[in-house]
Design brief:
476 residues; alpha/beta; Aminopeptidase; Aminopeptidase i, Domain 2; nine-stranded mixed sheet; six-stranded antiparallel sheet; 29% helix
């Protein structure tokens, strides 16, 4: 039952392939720090590989045939890609499903304020985070501002070397006696995760001052009262055409600034923000884009909102995927309600999501025989959940046996794991939602250190084996 470290078996050619995949993956991470950015990058890569939007297919009245490649987008935050197979789609699909949202800080709708001539943005954390990890690190702002005239402005500040970065402050150690007595979960309060963005007061130009009129006096008094905030608003106006009211219809996310990097003197790992679950999203996407026409229709489904329960229109609990499959079947001349139900029930899916890598510094949180390890390949979690498998999919033994067979035949390195020691915690994925259709589903992904932290770490070998495993799945 022990698995060998797969690094020991690689040829020079495989190591070259591995490094190329890791390099492409790092670029994906750098260009996709939000779900919207991930969708944008995914569409670009898909179109380069010959995929056409389902919307275009519908407008053209095109009849889809085996070998056709299409994609559909939901609100710019979820995307599904399909490679049409030779068999009737009612016989089921091969689905790779992952999520492209990651824990972060979101700006509140009324975020901007000044206090003692320092200006902050008020945030609300998204997903499961250790709040103390987000202080005193370089931060960037990514997202969109939608204005009343219908225009949508893209925002990305903090990634270019010439950009400023932002920060959440922390109390100096010399004054932290009482603070250090608090439990870790409250040492930094959620309402204190405010981002410092400015400290320079706006000095009105002389021709703007008119102390002889009441209006001029009021304007001067207002600028003097919130002069730093006024300066920030002036910058936002000049650079983005943005008024303070436009925050009401903005989706701006605070994420760690900086590029994904190789990790370790041996460069065997990748260190970056957002690898849960973009490491599985990218390898799933890469596997599909390199797959030729199969008997079964192949699908890569990348969804939003997994970190907060897969809710909302762009989460897995929405009807986006089901509706898209219905449209797809209609374009193939195969749609009926019964055929749709058969398609979904007959499908097989890998819920491509990360697993917790064993960390010897915190070994008591794991059960070593059933933990995932760096360098031992793609991880299969038969079940996740917490407290007696609550909220778990718990895949069938027969499906697990089929998985073992196809992975072994393709020489894919894989391991099985649980998400930590019993009663130590737990977590969930989108697997249980897809299983509601009656399809076979199992969780599979890459082992991650520092999961949900601003910087997560993965093994390049596991990334390589994940892509191999996902490709093998689509081709069986």
């Amino acid at each position: 039952m022990n698995r060998e470290n797969v690094w020991k078996s690689y040829t020079k050619e495989q190591c070259v392939e591995l490094e190329k995949l890791a390099s492409d993956y790092r670029k994906f991470l750098d260009n996709g720090k939000t779900e919207r950015e991930c969708v944008k990058v995914t569409i670009r890569l898909a179109r380069e590989a010959g995929y056409q939007s389902l919307e275009e297919v519908l407008q053209e009245g095109k009849q889809l045939q085996p070998g056709d490649k299409v994609y559909a987008v939901c609100m710019e935050k979820a995307v599904a890609l399909f490679l049409i197979g030779t068999e009737p789609i009612s016989k089921g699909m091969r689905i790779l499903g992952a999520h492209i949202d990651s824990p972060r800080l979101d700006l509140k709708q009324n975020p901007l304020y000044e206090d003692t001539e320092l200006v902050y943005l008020d945030t609300h954390y998204y997903g499961g985070v250790k709040k103390y990890q987000w202080v005193t690190i370089p931060l960037a702002i990514h997202g969109v501002v939608a204005k009343k005239d219908g225009t949508v402005t893209q925002v990305c500040i903090g990634e270019d070397p010439s950009d400023p970065v932002f920060c959440i402050t922390d109390l100096l150690i010399h004054l932290s006696g009482e603070l250090l007595e608090k439990k870790a979960k409250v040492v930094i309060e959620g309402e204190n995760l405010d981002v410092l963005i400015g400290s320079r007061p706006l000095v009105p130009e002389k021709d703007e001052e008119d102390a002889q009129t009441q209006e001029g006096a009021e304007k001067k008094d207002k600028v003097q009262k919130d002069a730093v905030k006024a300066g920030i608003l002036k910058i936002l106006k000049e650079k983005y055409g943005m008024e303070e009211e436009d925050f009401l219809s903005a989706e701006l996310e605070i994420v760690p600034a900086g590029a994904a990097r190789d990790c370790g003197l041996d460069r065997s790992m990748v260190a970056a923000y957002g690898q849960d679950d973009r490491v599985c999203s990218y390898t799933s996407l890469a596997a599909l884009l390199e797959t030729e026409t199969q008997a079964h229709t192949c699908c890569c489904l990348l969804v939003d909102k997994e970190e907060i329960g897969s809710v909302g229109a762009t989460g897995m609990q929405s009807r986006f995927f089901e509706n898209t499959v219905a449209e797809l079947m209609n374009c193939m001349g195969q749609y009926s309600e019964l055929a749709l139900r058969r398609c979904l029930a007959n499908s097989r899916m890998l819920s491509s999501d990360v697993s917790a890598a064993y960390d010897p510094l915190y070994g008591s949180a794991f059960e070593k025989k059933n933990a995932a390890y760096f360098g031992k390949g793609l991880v299969f979690n038969k079940y996740t959940g917490a407290r007696g498998k609550s909220g778990s999919n718990d895949a069938n033994a027969e499906y697990m046996a089929w998985i073992r067979k196809v992975m072994d035949e393709a020489n894919v390195a894989f391991q099985t794991a649980e998400l930590g020691r019993i009663d130590a915690g737990g977590g969930g994925t989108i697997a249980y939602i897809s299983a509601l259709y009656g399809m076979e589903v199992i969780d599979s992904g890459v082992a991650v250190l520092n999961m949900h932290a601003p910087m997560e770490i993965t093994s390049k070998a596991d990334i390589y084996e994940a892509k191999k495993g996902y490709t093998t799945f689509l081709r069986n």
